[in-house]
Amino acid sequence: MSAAESSSSAEAEREALRALTFQRLHPKAYLERFLAENARPDGREPGEWRDISVNVGSISTADGSALVRLGATTIVCGVKAEIAEPELDSPEDGFLVPNLDLPAICSPKFRPGPPTDEAQVLSDRLHEVLVSSGAIPTKSLCIQPGKAVWTLYIDATCINYDGNVFDATLVAMMAALKNTRLPKATYDEETGRTLCTRKEQGPLQINRLPLSMTFGIFDSVHLLADPASFEEPLLDTTFTVTVDENGGLISVVQLGLAPQDVLPRCIAASKARGVELAQRIYGSI
């Protein structure tokens, strides 16, 4: 390497270090400078989404599984089916038990120890979406009314956190459920036991395929789609719009205040992206 090249390389390293230092000390000003040029720190435009990829069936010990990457955010999800007794007031309804784990290994923002409040809140929201959407009818999980039903434990773990973990986890959970195969189960009235055979397996009854799209408002002006981890703590308001594979609206969650015209824009963008994304993701599973 020549002296000129060496000097140029050293200057580039110093410039990168200065940029990184400015980003850490003044994150809001750092983001403002990018948005002034209609860009974001990761190279996207304000309304641009990150690439998403889905792989299913990678966990051989699970009844269904999926690995999802949304940008650098990575989620692995496994479904485990167990037989349980139904509730007395719902003798034909099985159970969906989604859970999201945000371990310390996925990001410096999380610490070792019991589940964080954020993980619990997100798990509750995921459960609400799965139940309210009617994605999997709980009655389809019935083996024998009042005696035996399926409980589906849908456990997702974040391997790498780079923002918008809710959207990525919902895709991972639905892809894993679509990949799930349950053994044929029959209830023996005489013995009071449920017998299963893995020689006969069948898919779950899935009526809808919910997808969520999250947006954030920065500095009361800029609407950012699919916020990254650097952007999330700087946002004034977030919207999460959940739609099905046909663009049907399932739910809207808004945290913070926003101008009245923003929500309709988010819903319209979510419906368009939801239809396109469902065909691309779920069509091949």
From TrEMBL:
The keyword RNA-binding applies. GO terms for cellular component: cytoplasmic exosome (RNase complex); nuclear exosome (RNase complex); nucleolus. Residues 48-183, 210-272 form the Exoribonuclease phosphorolytic domain. GO terms for molecular function: mRNA 3'-UTR AU-rich region binding. Keywords: Cytoplasm, Exosome, Nucleus, RNA-binding, rRNA processing. It is found in: Cytoplasm; Nucleus, Nucleolus. The keyword Cytoplasm applies. Its main location: cytoplasm. PANTHER family: EXOSOME COMPLEX COMPONENT RRP43, EXOSOME COMPLEX EXONUCLEASE RIBOSOMAL RNA PROCESSING PROTEIN. Belongs to the RNase PH family. This is Ribosomal RNA-processing protein 43. It comes from Phlebiopsis gigantea (strain 11061_1 CR5-6) (White-rot fungus).
